[in-house]
Specification:
The complex is a heterodimer of chains A (about 550) and B (about 240). In chain A, about 5% of the residues lie in helices and about 35% in strands. Chain A is built from three helices and 35 strands. Chain A has a five-stranded mixed beta sheet, with no helix packed on it. In chain A, a hairpin with a 2-residue loop joins strand 3 and strand 4. Chain B is of the alpha+beta class and about 240 residues long. Chain B has a five-stranded antiparallel beta sheet with strand order 6-5-4-3-7, with no helix packed on it. A two-stranded antiparallel ribbon of chain B has the order 1-2. In chain B, a hairpin with a 3-residue loop joins strand 4 and strand 5 (about 185-190). Classes of the chains: A mainly beta (about 550), B alpha+beta (about 240). Chains A and B meet through helix 3 of A and strand 4 of B.
Chain lengths: ~550, ~240
């Protein structure tokens, strides 16, 4: 009897051991594209910049709820040895966090760009991969990097000096390093965007559109780094849209890319938002609509061929970059189910487009807007005469002002509540430059790391998270902040919305009514989009603020 | 929440004398020739009692802006208010360094806003490392100083805003507004204490200058004397 028991115990131990091996083997599984495509099947992971290829920044995890989020407490902090803004959204793959330290402005070894692998439970580092960035390499508004992508065992990162690199996710060693472009003199093509993996390709775009560049999107073979296709966001003469630029202005037309796109497997289209035409404030130098600036372009993911486009702000002279995340959802619009794209634009308008063909379905301001009177039947905005910045205009403030109603930071769509959550600015007091136009009189409104004093009044501008039912474009609720925000929004299946702002609070709202549920002063500006993951059945919420990465979970 | 958000619609733009809060357009105030020595005596004496709020060369209260260099050219970068990444300014530091606030048509004046010179993005610059948005320029004119003395609410500067907080317990707290966020006011109060005041305890907040008008307290000659004294102050 005893022997049989021992045997049984041994068998059990063997089975448990096998299970352990199975678990390990699952944990060691490569991240296939099928996993990226079906991220909802593994909500414990955060496999892409926006959490899924639809760009929704929504977590199906529901351990943290509107009822218990008040018990959220800090689990760990990872401090980046960098002085630069931390705009990265980390990935989490089976218990490992992959994040990026932006290059700091010092020439120290620690100050280089680093991909860092951290334990998702403790925040302890496993490895660091350092990539030197020349001090001359920079984007317009900070030496930032918004994240990595993963496929197989390989991480992909764009760099400020126009490279795309591949790094082994297991040990942080370089696999390949591709030069995206050798910038001509006096031009920069920084890659600040988190790449998007579609099938066997890594897609990135080049920023720098405030300067004399001709930006492009490009796809690279994930195994070799070889360029597969390239799509210029500014067409040349003879190409469709090429006649929307006067003279030689297309050569330096800008239209940079600095926010990750999305992907629709049904149509095999990948969608990307483009930045302002260059030079922003000199419209007469580039007569025409200036395609495809301030647009969303829908490209065949295999070939890079343009399938459709929609231009949010034709002939932009107000710096209304359309570098927002295209958010894909299926919604009933005017009695009919539609495959839509939701878009909250820097120009102050929110849109619902048919993502299969780019048809404009409906749109409406989500902040105070006075540069347009609405849309024509085709969805083109109708400009208000005289509403131009600076000496060109009639002297009255333009709403939204040049830093816009929102920016690159992510919105969120919750399939559970059906609401679209937009981090926004109301900044309508002044326009055309100056302190007020830039978000406040006493401090720069540009994102930074440390906290900045704020004495603005509500009329001078404030940050806000607004929730809309995009079926009707009806505002459901809003949560106002006193200062502006550069933080993205995360929604979860626990009916919680997480966000933050320049005030340095990270907070949780009820996704249904916007009620404040929890907050923590994190000591630095929140300039990133939160994300969620779980390990061992425990849900975490992570966000970068200041120069650090914070991870929270419920009190045990 | 936002019952206690600051609203300039219902508030008076407030200020105390300070280089950063002087109107950019000179008001039409006729001043006789002034005497800086007499002005100093008035400033320090009980009639004006300016030192109860203002400090000059280390003497006087820290509550109001430090006027030690009110007559010196403004701007020039550095000092005063830092850029976006700078530390919260102290009241003393906020005053003399020429915060260069734009003239602003406040609720009381109804004059159109005059935006300051645009501060373009610094290509590649780290926002946190930028200087403050300062307007280098000439010191305030005698007329502008006189206007600030006669009508402290005529022009407001965001860097020298004062807030009056009516608390739910019936008390009133007045202070220089260092910063306000979604949940609290950070102020330098009239007793020279730093306070973080939770909005949960605030019934009403208004931006109102604690500085009284001297329109009926000083003669035109005395006003001119004080102005002469202030314009002579170039810092130590």
């Amino acid at each position: 009897m005893r022997r049989r028991l021992v045997t049984a115990r041994g068998t059990l131990a063997f089975i448990v051991g096998l299970m352990g091996i199975a678990v390990l083997s699952i944990q060691a599984q490569q991240v296939t594209f099928d996993r990226l495509l079906h991220a909802e099947r593994e909500p414990h992971n955060w496999l892409t910049y926006s959490g899924n290829l639809l760009g929704q920044r929504y977590s199906p995890l529901n351990q943290i709820t509107a009822s218990n989020v008040k018990n959220l407490e800090l689990q760990w902090i990872w401090q980046a040895p960098s002085l630069e803004k931390f705009e990265t959204t980390s990935l989490v793959v089976d218990g490992i966090v992959y994040t990026i330290q932006a290059p700091t402005n010092t020439n120290t070894a620690d100050g280089n760009t680093q991909i860092v692998a951290l334990d998702a439970v403790t925040g302890r580092p496993f490895w660091r991969f350092t990539y030197p960035i020349p001090m001359t390499a920079r984007a317009c508004c900070g030496r930032v990097n918004r994240g990595v992508a993963i496929l197989g065992d390989t991480l992909f990162m764009g760099t400020l000096n126009s490279h795309l690199i591949a790094v082994n996710a297991k040990n942080g060693t370089l696999l390949w390093d591709t030069t995206v472009i050798v910038p001509p003199t006096n031009a920069t093509y920084p890659v600040t965007v988190a790449p998007l993996v579609v099938k066997d390709k890594v897609i990135i775009g080049t920023a720098g559109g405030d300067g004399a560049i001709r930006a492009f999107l490009a796809a690279y073979d994930a195994k070799t780094g070889k360029e597969v296709w390239r799509f210029y966001t500014v067409p040349g003469p003879g190409e469709p849209g090429g006649d929307s630029w006067s003279g030689e202005s297309w050569r330096t037309g800008g239209a940079g890319i600095w926010t990750t796109g999305s992907y629709d497997p049904e149509t095999n289209l990948t969608f990307w938002g483009t930045g302002n035409p260059n030079p922003t404030g000199n419209g007469p130098s580039r007569l025409g609509d200036n395609l495809y600036s301030d647009s969303v372009v829908a490209l065949d993911a295999d070939t890079g061929k343009l399938k459709w486009h929609y231009q949010f702000t034709p002939h932009d002279e107000m710096d209304y970059d359309s570098t927002q995340v295209p958010v894909l959802a299926d919604l009933e619009i005017k009695g009919r189910m539609r495959k839509v794209m939701l878009w909250a634009n820097r120009n102050g308008l929110m849109y619902v487009l048919d993502r299969t063909n780019g048809e404009f379905l409906q749109g409406k301001p989500f902040v105070n807007v006075n540069w347009t009177n609405g849309f024509d039947p085709k969805g083109r905005p109708i400009r208000v005469p005289g509403k131009l910045p600076g000496a060109q205009g009639d002297g009255t403030p333009i709403m939204p002002t040049i830093l816009g109603a929102t920016n690159w930071y992510s919105p969120s769509f919750s399939p559970k509540t059906g609401l679209f959550y937009i981090p926004a600015w109301e900044n309508s007091k002044s326009g055309g430059g100056g302190g007020g136009a830039r978000g406040g009189f006493n401090t720069t409104p540009m994102a930074g790391t440390a906290l900045a004093p704020n004495t603005k009044t509500e009329e001078e501008g404030f940050g806000v998270v607004r929730a809309f039912d995009m079926r009707t474009l009806e505002k459901k609720w809003e949560f106002k902040m006193n200062d502006i925000t550069w933080a993205g929004v995360l929604s979860t299946a626990g009916d919680v919305v997480f966000s933050g702002g320049r005030e340095g609070y990270f907070f949780a709202l009820d996704a249904r009514d916007g009620k404040l549920l929890w907050k923590l002063a994190v000591g630095g500006q929140v300039n990133s989009g939160p994300m969620s993951y779980s390990v061992g059945g425990k849900q975490y919420i992570a966000v970068a603020a200041g120069t650090s990465l914070f991870s929270f979970a419920l009190r045990q | 929440m936002r019952a206690n958000r600051i609203s300039t619609v219902i508030l008076t733009a407030g200020l105390m004398i300070g280089p950063s809060l002087i109107a950019q357009t000179a008001p039409d105030i006729a001043l006789p020739p002034g005497d800086a020595t007499r002005g100093k005596a008035i400033f320090e004496g009980s009639k004006a009692n300016c030192q109860s709020c203002h400090r000059i060369n280390g003497v006087g209260s820290l509550f109001g802006p430090d006027l030690s260099a009110i007559g010196a050219p403004r701007g020039g970068g550095g000092g005063g208010r830092g850029g976006g990444g700078g530390p919260a300014p102290t009241p003393a530091a906020a005053a003399p360094a020429g915060a260069g606030a734009p003239a602003r048509g406040g609720a009381t004046t109804g004059t159109p806003a005059t935006p300051p010179a645009p501060v373009p993005p610094v290509p590649g610059g780290n926002a946190a490392g930028r200087g403050g948005q300062q307007n280098p320029g000439a010191p305030p004119t005698p007329q502008q100083l006189a206007q600030s003395i006669l009508d402290p609410n005529a022009v407001v500067s965001p860097v020298n805003r004062y807030v009056v907080l009516k608390m739910k317990d019936g008390k009133t707290v007045t202070g220089k507004l260092l910063s306000v966020d979604t949940f609290a006011f950070q102020i330098f109060d009239s007793t020279e204490r730093l306070q973080n005041v939770s909005k949960e305890n605030v019934r009403e907040s208004t931006m109102t200058s604690p500085m009284p008008s001297y329109r009926d307290k000083l003669t035109n000659q005395e006003l001119s004397d004080v102005v002469s004294y202030l314009t002579s102050l170039r810092g130590q």
